Structures are given as structure tokens and as C-alpha cells.
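User: I would dearly like some help making sense of a protein record. I have put the entry right below:
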Amino acid sequence: MASLDASRLRLTRASVLRPVPDPESSELWAQNIATDHMATCRWTVDEGWEDPEIKPFSDFSISPLASCVHYATQCFEGMKVYRGLDNRLRLFRPDRNAKRLATSAERVSLPTFDTEQLVELIKALVRVDAPRWLPKPGNFRYIRPALIGTGRQLGVQVPKEALLFIIIVCWPDFSTESPPGVEPRSDLRLLTSRSDTIRAWPGGFGHVKVGANYGPSFASHCEAQRAGYDQILWLFGEDGQVTEAGASNFFAVVKDGRTATPKLLTASLTYP
């Protein structure tokens, strides 16, 4: 059974390169501009991992019977490549993202892989596209590794085929910019979730990054925006424990007056 092996990577360069948007361009807010290439690697239950490939970015076809379409057998990661003020390209803790993707894959019965090999594939794609797509210091591009069950099987069962892919996307800087037509603000308004909507719970899958965590939260998010808020502050339990804000971690700095050092509080990935 073949393991994921970045040393067997094949590279097919794009013959036509796409225009790179300016870092201040409003196009970035569409979050749909990908770089010239993508990395892919197929897996089958009989053969294991095939040779990975970096090839021109394109759509791929998938069977209507694919497991990921019906049973949410998919997971993903979100990370960034930065161009530092010293003009060097950097990844931030890619090993942590790779390990969480492996944990997420296991949670939804997708194939395992060597996390170090995944990091090497990410680095390879960055080396191909980041020099041209990230030309200015102080900016970044968003990296999305994902793994989906692609086997043609409508029955409720573990996927027999899967596809790993990695793309790099232009992304706005939410910390310093606002969407076109939106007045910049320094605050963030949060609406607490209703008692009948729960984002994460003991024994669930809030500790992994799977699509099933996100779709059910969109209705509450839209409700918050219609009411003039930015995001939902997700609560759990009768005592209203904070679990997350929107789709991001929530933390607070607390100073109780008894100690000189403030405390940093955030939700745990385990319960209790």
C-alpha cells in the first residue's frame, strides 16, 4: 500500500499565467481568485496514494455518487504564506495544520497520510506560485489543503477513493480593511447564539475542521448580519460557555484586580 510521498511529485507548469491582482484591489473580497497551479493526489483503498502532481489550476469533475456529496466525508485546513518585510516567504506552523488535517480525516473515515509529506507538498506549491503571486512585502496568500471522499458509492460506507488537493487563493486582510461599500469600524459586534443552535458539543466534531461544522451555522450568521451584527458568539450549556465567534477562535484578556498579570482565556478543544 503506497504512502503519500512528496519526493514522487510531478510538475506540469501552466502555459498561460493569470493576472495577479493588486494587494489593495477590491477583487480580493470575492475570495475566488486562485493562483496558477494546484497540487493533487488521489488515493484508493486497493493501491493507497498515487504520485502527487502540481498542475495548472482547473475545475475537476466528480461523480454525483461521490461520498463527499452526500455524507460530508471531507475536511480541510486554512493557513497562509507570508511575504515578510525582509522579502522572504514564510509559512506559520504548517506542521500543526497538517496534523489537524490528519485528525480531521480520521474523524470522517478518510485515508491517513504522513503529515510531513503533506507539508512538503504545500511548500512545493508555494515555491511554484508564491514568488509571482505574492510580490510585495507585508502581504499574504491563503492556502487551502482539502481531502474529499470521491468513491462512486451511494451506500452509507467508508469511502474507497479520495482526493487530496491544495490551492492558493488571494485573500483580503480583514484586520486592516473593510469590504467595498462598508464603513470601516474598530469594533466587532457579536450576537449570542440562541439556545436551540449549538456550534460544538461534547462528543461532537468541533475539534476538527470539517464542512459539516459550517453549513448548519450559516443561517445563524445571516440572522446576525440582518440584525446589524458582524458574527455569532456561539454559546453552549445552561451557563452559556463560549465556544467560538463566527468561524474563529474567541479569547478574552481578563484583569481581576488581584494580580498584576492579566489572564488570557479561551475555549478548550476538550470538554470539560
